[in-house]
Amino acid sequence: MSIYTLGIDIGSTASKCIILKDGKDIVAKSLVDVGAGTTGPSRAISDVLENAHMKKEEMAYTLATGYGRNSLEGIADKQMSELSCHAMGAYFLWPNVHTVIDIGGQDAKVIHIENGTMTNFQMNDKCAAGTGRFLDVMARVLEVKVSDLDKLGAQSKKRVPISSTCTVFAESEVISQLSKGTNKIDIIAGIHRSVASRVIGLANRVGVVPDVVMTGGVAQNTGVVNALQEGLGVEIKTSPLAQYNGALGAALYAYRKATK
Amino acid sequence: MAKVVSPGVQALRDVVEKVYRELREAKEAGEPVGWSSSKFPCELAESFGLHVGYPENQAAGIAANRDGEVMCQAAEDLGYDNDICGYARISLAYAAGYRGANKMDKDGNYVINPNSGKQMKDADGKKVFDENGKPVMDPKTMKPYATTDNIYEIAALPDGEEKTRRQNALHKYRQMTMPMPDFVLCCNNICNCMTKWYEDIARRHNIPLIMIDVPYNEFDHVNEANVKYIRSQLDTAIRQMEEISGKKFDEDKFEQCCQNANRTAKAWLKVCDYLQYKPSPFNGFDLFNHMADVVTARGRVEAAEAFELLASELEQHVKEGTTTAPFKEQHRIMFEGIPCWPKLPALFKPLKANGLNITGVVYAPAFGFVYDNLDGLVKAYCKAPNSVSIEQGVAWREGLIRDNKVDGVLVHFNRSCKPWSGYMPEMQRRFTKDLGIPTAGFDGDQADPRNFNAAQYETRVQGLVEAMEANDAKKGN
């Protein structure tokens, strides 16, 4: 009989779930664009169960991760940090991974992995620069959708530096560039490099060992991925499952627990 | 009801109470009293019979009593930048007459913070929630919002209802209530910001500043030029204290104070060393509380006796295989830096939940000054965490990690202490490279709660635990 496990990743800006069959096949996934402290977690859980045509009772083990993990007591059998879950998820998708760069809604982390297990990590300090929130703020100022930043930035021909290390000051810097008539697409490319430069500092502290994998919602933005590749001088692998990576890792750990 | 503590811990608390009580009594009796930095050679003032209070210790106490934020804000209102050390901001606000106080409305009634107090429980001991799922707080334990008031403004008021009301609203800091200083003693071995902080207090109150400048030391020993330089400053300090106290320097008394300080230091280091036992007979987090004694009373025989009593209690725990730690030790970590005093419960919660015992605290043994003579005293006071080279700092810590069997390091990136936090990324790299142990850093502050985020901290602690478990699995433990 098959064993089904549920991984739930409650982040600061999105709730993600994955149901895994026998620790290897993704049966269903769900994503709701609001995170901890909202209706997001319960909606994401009911969505994933509906997508899989299954009931919560059929899950052999449920494991929660992300900032909202502790709000799922009674729903999840165990909570783990998103650090280990991202390491596990990335190892499942890329068995040769040694470095994971995860940029989420409110934090950025770089994880060193040996044989699928996290051995060291660095996280951003108490600052929004270098996180998805930074991109949200900038998209609002530029009056574009966050999801469009990627293709707009790709058209840039000129380097416009966004040098402020603070989200609030960077916002004024962007406004100042706009008032000078600087092209939006060049500003967007500068914003991507700004996010990357913060994360490169973290990555260098951990040590960058290929294969390098990027996870989290920001991995869908090829502008940031390219800026990271340029800055670190290594190829960075991404997957369409990047945003689900934490939930995937949680479902994998859940399988380990269920079969122990 | 207050938690019952062992006779040794109680004796330590009594010593600190006595230091501050005697300080207040001395001021009331018209004697000159001082404020001293924590690593100023206390033996000098002690030998003159001069009573001093300790602003760093006081600021930690004020912060732990939840007034760190309002006192820091009061300093910022005076023009001090919020990038300045939280201890300095609290102390400078205190020196300017600011005190934590209950917030009042225009009619003089306290404004109660609805989120304060303990949660109500029903007859079955279950927590009570309102119709919105919000915890119901016991009105008897709810407290007013904190703000600050100024003692000089209150003193200038005519006697009457307003004066009495504002006096009554001031928070009582128990032993932390320090009278205003008649002189200040500053030694910058522990902190570079301290020189300007004490200079500011001296100018505000128009009082003497007795300064001992300890140069940065790049070697693992203290060279003779530095010893001469500091000894000449001690000579000047002695002359200044003779003027302040009106007494001649008494070498015999000084010798006695040095003996007391050495005895205290040895007993303190012995207490610290009990963390080498596995499992440890106590939680190293307690050292942060006991440090109040080694800061404020190391020249006193009572402090030495109290630490000796605590050491004997710990010896008994080792013999009986017991511990005073409130949880089972599952991992042993080094805590790097000063705690976030305003957030102690939040700091301790995930440590307890994950069975993390702090068995390494570099800040604690750094106050164990042991020496044989005056040159030795000078050399001992040259060795403070922020006045030595990074190699010396790494060597101290790696020795502690080995001796105290530490599995991982939790680093407080303390926004109040730029020098200390500035060299930590390199130290983290060294700990992992040299000793193969994981580290995790978190943002916080020793006194300003605005720089700490509990959710971020918990994730980093959990990450450290998972990395230590992976390390154990790799070693086959």
Describe the structure in brief.
The complex is a heterodimer of chains A (260) and B (477). By secondary structure, chain A is α/β, with parallel strands linked by helices.
Can you put this structure into words, describing what you see?
The complex is a heterodimer of chains A (260) and B (477). With 260 residues, chain A is α/β, with parallel strands linked by helices. Chain A is built from 8 helices and 10 strands. Chain A has a domain of 101 residues: Nucleotidyltransferase, domain 5, CATH 3.30.420. In chain A, the strands form 2 sheets. Chain A has a 5-stranded mixed sheet. A 5-stranded mixed sheet of chain A has the order 8-7-6-9-10. The longest helix of chain A has 23 residues. The model of chain A has no long low-confidence stretch (mean pLDDT 91). In chain B, strands 2-1-5-6 form a 4-stranded parallel sheet, sandwiched between helices. In chain B, strands 8-7-9-10 form a 4-stranded parallel sheet, sandwiched between helices. Chain B has a two-stranded antiparallel sheet with strand order 3-4. At the A-B interface, helix 2 and strand 8 of A face helix 17, strand 10 and helix 18 of B.
In this structure, how is the largest beta sheet of chain B organized? 4 strands, parallel
Largest sheet of chain A: 5 strands, mixed
**Helix-strand category of chain B:** alpha/beta
Name of the level-1 CATH class of the largest domain in chain B: Alpha Beta
Strand order of the largest sheet of chain B: 2-1-5-6
Helix content of chain A: 40-55%
Largest interface: A-B, 19 and 26 residues
Number of contiguous helices of chain A:
8
Order of helices and strands of chain A: EEEHEEHEEEHHHHEHEH
CATH fold assignment of the domain at 4-87 and 243-259 in chain A: Nucleotidyltransferase, domain 5
Q: State the low-pLDDT regions of chain B, or none.
A: none
Gross geometry of chain A: globular
Q: Helix/strand/pairing class of chain A, anyone?
A: alpha/beta
CATH topology of the largest domain in chain B: Rossmann fold
Structure annotation, total helices of chain B: 18
Give the helix level of chain B as a range of percent.
40-55%
- Number of individual domains of chain B: 2
**Going by CATH, what is the homologous superfamily of the domain at 4-87 and 243-259 in chain A?**
ATPase, nucleotide binding domain
**Series of secondary-structure elements of chain B, N-terminal to C-terminal:** HEHEHHHEEHHEHEHHHHEHEHHEHHEH
CATH class of the domain at 4-87 and 243-259 in chain A: Alpha Beta
CA-atom Rg of chain A in angstroms: 19 Å
